[in-house]
Design brief:
heterodimer; A: five-stranded antiparallel beta sheet; 6 helices; B: 650 residues; mainly beta; ten-stranded mixed beta sheet; six-stranded mixed beta sheet; globular
């Protein structure tokens, strides 16, 4: 976890007199608040960069097909990847990848992210003006974490539906060794071998930016807490 | 017993000899294993160079990799090619149109890659059709024929399709002198009456489109090969001639009488200026100009009616003859543009002319008479040197960019390496057998890549497993990176390669197209949406707008076709994935299949002659369900009332 240098310096500060310390505390809280203002801004990266990335490589696809999952829709890594993934998946009865209008998430997620970024920045500003305590910072972080987990859960639900809700007239109906119908859920995280395809699913730039931003807000909460503790 | 002793002695001797033989073999083995390493391109790895070998009488151009000698593609140019439907599909038939009608074949000779500042730029490759004179431009992003222009007043379009150093012109010279314009006259009145047309075809710098700028009507010699000046000699073009005797029969004797023929030096910049200032005479001439549009996926043929001709005697200082011994074949210019090499095919020697000396002789007006009003320079005045090779029948010279030249000798069957300037022979290696031309990638430019030379042999004999009387020609690869040439590989070629051009792979790989974009498809009968398929009747013509995607045709059931109909299958491939073509063939088709690239539309005409239910199918293995990619057309009697309908999945 990030632990900015000035947090450590603080330990060695001599506790001289109270008035001096109030100024010092307020300075620390201001720094924490600045981190709290900047952190949520990293969420805005999600409007540009993909949240998640799924790559599908196979012997016939030395240049793998790829899917970038943005908060507002799906995009192929290369221009025609979505069409080509759909084309291949129709053999095994998978539905085509959802368009923007097919999933409420693509409309809702950008709004939620926008609200959370605005809320976080507002909390930071109010913290800077000494109107709010560091607990609000932590609160924002926890809310964002819960929303993130819910998003992951929802994403996983879609992956399950995408990989298991198969057309009953599929051209190829494959079974597992135990006789159960084979399903094709891509992994939420990591690599899976699926028929002739190597499927790798990893967070992408947008998620990493969000992660950095959230860590900044957590650090902000920590810094805020430290400033009260030294009090 | 005595006999036994001798027997043992002989046995011992035989064993010793055998072991000597084995040693020799194993040393050969070590040699060939190092050659093997040089040509081995491991699975998954790619070649260092592209080589474009002319197909000669196949009419097409073949693409190889060097050093592996693997063939990658045959590009149909002048010949119908049932493999892809070229020359059979409605879109490509116009590409083979000429003033003589549809000509489905030609003899393709001399590929030349486009250049900028005398260096290969890899945009296009130009090739000539020898028999019904034509020049084609092949696009090196699609590796398809993009344009063909017929050359009027020419016959045996052989000293062609060489380009100037900024691809200002692609040049086409006639091999056979003919009456210009063509007319009914006695053959034996050839001498003094026939003409040799040298045609300068301008190339649009952006799109590559060709147009005949002017035809220089030279004396009726035979113009064999040509090359542009480069560097200091840029602005000049050089043509070898034979039959300066102007014989019209038994040429093998009658055209070999003069001790010297000529290299014609043409100052095309001077003629260009003359023409731009209104010089020249327009004469009627019929020729076809065929252009393929990459977006409509369709060729269009236009017949032109006249051509601008130039009388060389009307442009002073534009044309000179350089005496050159013995019916020279190849006419090659070194990378600096200083030396012009005449490969005197009936002699042992190479004649090298000096550009500087030529200019000095012209300025000094030191002429040795004239031929049909064209000044002849004195042999001694323009001679830079002669290569006394000891070989026989020099044909063609290329350069390695390190001051060396490599010449093929047809009669003595060898490649000879010699040094420019000293004219000394450095090395010679046999070829198997009877080499015609040779190619060093960029060897005909200011910047050769002197690592390999490919020798194209005319005779194959025992080099490969026998395949009856007819065999593919043999090419051989020499490593020329060291002082001595080393023969490292044999590989068969397709047709008869007369000539080749090569370039580093990276010049082309990044520009090579993977698909055609469906959203750029402007074919008038294209189906660009999944539900856009339809069948339209117009009298007895039926147009089927059909699409393909793995792995079905839309529609795949068609009824209401009648005997006597002319059915156009317009197939659009909806794939946008690299290397997923679909094919189309229908029983009784009087042409070829179609091979349709992703995003492309092609059309095949089918005229059903009998009632029945006739199947069609995909000819290119496209997916695991390829075998299911099939459909039916119901054909009813001419007078039937069966309704026109079409469907998929009903």
């Amino acid at each position: 976890m990030t632990c900015p240098l000035f947090l450590q310096i603080e330990v060695y500060q001599p506790n001289k007199n109270r008035s001096q310390f109030v100024i010092f505390k307020s300075k620390k809280m201001k720094k924490a608040s600045i981190a709290m203002i900047i952190g949520p801004l990293f969420l805005l990266g999600l409007y540009i960069f993909p949240l998640w990335n799924i790559m599908l490589g196979a012997p016939q696809y030395p240049d793998p097909l790829g899917l970038n999952i943005h908060i507002n829709g799906l995009q192929g890594v290369n221009e025609f990847d979505i069409q080509n993934i759909d084309g291949l998946n129709h053999y095994i009865g998978m539905h085509t990848l959802p368009k923007v209008e097919d999933m409420w998430e693509f409309g809702t997620f950008p709004i939620v992210i926008g609200i959370m970024a605005a809320l976080g920045v507002s909390i930071g500003i109010l913290g800077y003006l000494d109107k709010l305590s560091f607990k609000w910072f932590l609160g924002w972080f926890l809310l964002m974490s819960i929303l993130g987990l819910l998003g992951m859960y929802d994403f996983n639900e879609w992956l399950i539906d995408y990989g298991t809700n198969l057309d009953s007239n599929a051209i190829m109906k494959l079974t597992n060794p135990d006789g159960s119908p084979m399903t094709y859920k891509p992994p939420l995280l990591g690599h899976v071998k699926m028929l002739n395809f190597d499927v790798t699913s990893l967070p992408s730039t947008g998620a990493w930016l969000m992660f950095v931003g959230m860590m900044l807000t957590l650090a902000a909460a920590f810094m805020g807490w430290k400033s009260t503790k030294t009090q | 017993m005595k006999i036994d002793k001798y027997f043992i002695f002989y046995m011992g001797l035989a064993l010793m000899l055998a072991s000597c033989g084995e040693q020799k073999n194993s040393s050969n083995g070590a040699l060939s294993s190092s050659a093997a390493e040089k040509v081995y391109v491991a699975p998954g790895e790619q070649d260092e160079y592209y080589a474009f070998l002319s197909g000669g009488y196949s009419g097409n151009l073949t693409v190889y990799g060097l050093p592996s000698g693997r063939m990658f593609k045959e590009i149909p140019v002048f010949s119908q090619f049932p493999t892809s439907g070229y020359g059979y599909s409605e879109e490509t038939v116009p590409m083979l149109n000429t003033s003589h009608g549809f000509v489905p074949w030609d003899d393709l000779h001399h590929p030349d890659i486009s250049q900028t500042n005398g260096e290969l730029d890899g945009r296009w490759i130009f090739v000539n059709g020898n028999n019904t004179p034509r020049i084609a431009r092949v696009d090196l992003s699609t590796f398809e024929t993009a344009e063909i222009i017929e050359v009027p007043n020419s016959a045996g379009n052989h000293s062609s399709s060489f380009i100037t150093e900024n691809t200002e012109y692609v040049v086409a010279g006639t091999r056979f002198a003919v009456p210009v314009p063509q007319r009914d006259m006695p053959i034996n009145e050839y001498k003094g009456n026939f003409k040799g047309a040298l045609t300068f075809i301008s190339v649009d710098p952006e799109h590559g489109h060709m147009a005949i700028k002017f035809q220089l009507l030279m004396p009726g010699f035979n113009y064999d090969l040509s090359h542009p000046g480069r560097g200091k000699s840029h602005g000049w073009f050089f043509f070898t001639t034979y039959n300066t005797e102007e014989a019209n029969s038994l040429l093998e004797v009658n055209a070999s009488q003069n001790d010297k023929d000529f290299i014609a030096a043409i100052n095309w910049k001077k003629i260009e200026e003359y023409v731009n200032n209104g010089g020249g005479t327009k004469i009627p001439a019929k020729y076809a100009h065929n252009v393929y549009d990459e977006h409509s996926h369709t060729g269009t043929s236009t017949l032109k009616e006249e051509v601008l001709t130039v009388d060389p005697t009307k442009v002073p200082g534009a044309v000179y003859f350089l005496p050159t011994p013995k019916s020279p074949h190849g006419c090659d210019v070194d990378p600096t543009g200083q030396y012009i090499i005449g490969n005197g095919k009936l002699s042992a020697d190479l004649t090298v002319h000096s550009f500087d000396k030529m200019i000095a002789a012209i300025e000094g007006e030191k002429f040795d008479g004239e031929a049909y009003g064209i000044p002849i320079l004195k042999f001694e005045d323009v001679l830079a040197g002669q290569v006394k090779s000891g070989g026989l029948g020099p044909l063609h010279t290329e350069f390695d960019g390190k001051g060396n030249a490599y010449t093929t000798f047809f009669i003595s069957s060898e490649v000879v390496k010699w040094q420019l300037g000293t004219w000394e022979v450095i090395d010679r290696k046999p070829t198997y057998y009877s080499v015609g031309h040779l190619m060093i990638p960029g060897g005909n430019s200011r910047k050769p890549f002197g690592k390999y030379v490919v020798a194209m042999n005319k005779i194959t004999k025992d080099r490969y497993l026998p395949t009856g009387p007819e065999m593919e020609h043999s090419a051989q690869l020499y490593d020329i990176s060291g002082d001595k040439m080393e023969l490292i590989y044999d590989f068969p070629t397709h047709g008869e390669p007369h000539y080749a051009a090569g370039c580093p792979a990276e010049l082309l790989t990044s520009n090579s197209r993977k698909i055609y974009r469906l959203d750029e498809n402007r074919h008038p009968y294209a189906v660009t949406t999944a539900d856009g398929s339809k069948v339209v009747r117009d009298g007895n013509e039926v147009h089927i707008y059909m699409s393909t995607i793995r792995s079905h045709f839309t529609p795949d059931n068609i009824e209401g076709i009648k005997v006597g109909d002319k059915v156009y299958f317009h197939i659009t491939n909806h794939e946008q994935d690299f290397d997923v073509p679909h094919g189309f063939a229908i029983l009784g088709q009087n042409s070829s299949e179609l091979l349709v690239m992703p995003g492309q539309t092609k059309t095949s005409v089918w005229e059903p002659k009998e009632v029945g239910v006739w199947p069609f199918y995909c000819t290119d293995f496209c997916s695991a369900l390829h075998q299911e990619m099939q459909g039916y057309v119901r054909v009813s009697p001419a007078n039937s009332n069966v309704e026109l309908k079409w469907s998929l999945g009903e």
